[in-house]
Amino acid sequence: MNKTLTTLESWHDKYCHYADYLQHPFLLFVRLYWGVQLIESGWGKLHNLDKVTDFFTSLGLPAPGFTATAISSLEFFGGLLLAVGLFSRVISLVLAINMLMAYITADKEALHSIFSDPDKFTAAAPYVFLIASLIVFLFGPGIFSLDALLSRFFAKSLRENKSPV
């Protein structure tokens, strides 16, 4: 019995070891796919600010013209930063808050149905952007990102510049 458990534990450890190799390509996929989607969404809004402003006015948001420009710019530039993996955790938190605000202001019915009708919640436009933002916020951008590249550069630079004490 003990040998069987040891074998199962060994298989489990090997399985998890190899599965870990998928983490970074997955994070790259999440960042690229939804980052590009945000870029396109922001670009579309930036080129139709009058319609976005009208929509924000209909929601009763304060300063709808400024808000339309700010949100459109956030989606465009935030999507760009997310896609390349620069300031990933900061921008993903800002984007997650933005998507929560989208639920609160424009999709209250979907938000209120999170438990009673989860399909309505997950079908709402902000959902996939919220989930992608939370994934990057919680797990980081992965090794295939500018954040990781800069981190390696600065770590190497600090090691080289250390003076003996």
Short description:
By secondary structure, the protein is an all-alpha fold. Helices cover 81% and strands 0% of the residues. The protein is flat, with a radius of gyration of 21 Å.
Topology:
Layout: H1 2-20, H2 23-46, H3 49-58, H4 64-84, H5 88-106, H6 108-112, H7 118-123, H8 126-139, H9 146-160
Helix pairs in contact: 2-4, 2-8, 3-4, 4-5, 5-8
Can you describe what's shown?
By secondary structure, the protein is mainly α. It has one domain (23-160). Helix content is 81%, strand content 0%. It has helices spanning 2-20, 23-46, 49-58, 64-84, 88-106, 108-112, 118-123, 126-139, 146-160. Helix 3 packs across helix 4 and helix 4 (64-84) runs antiparallel to helix 5 (88-106). The chain is flat, with a radius of gyration of 21 Å.
> Main beta sheet, described?
none
Low-confidence stretches: none
From the spread of the alpha carbons, the general shape counts as: flat
Compute the separation of the termini in Å. Answer: 56 Å
Work out the helix count.
9
Number of strands: 0
The Rg value, from CA coordinates, equals: 21 Å
Structural class: mainly alpha
Mean pLDDT: 93
What is the number of domains?
1
Helicity, in percent?
Answer: over 70%
> What string, H for helix and E for strand, traces the elements in order?
HHHHHHHHH
Tell me what portion of residues adopts beta-strand conformation.
Answer: under 5%
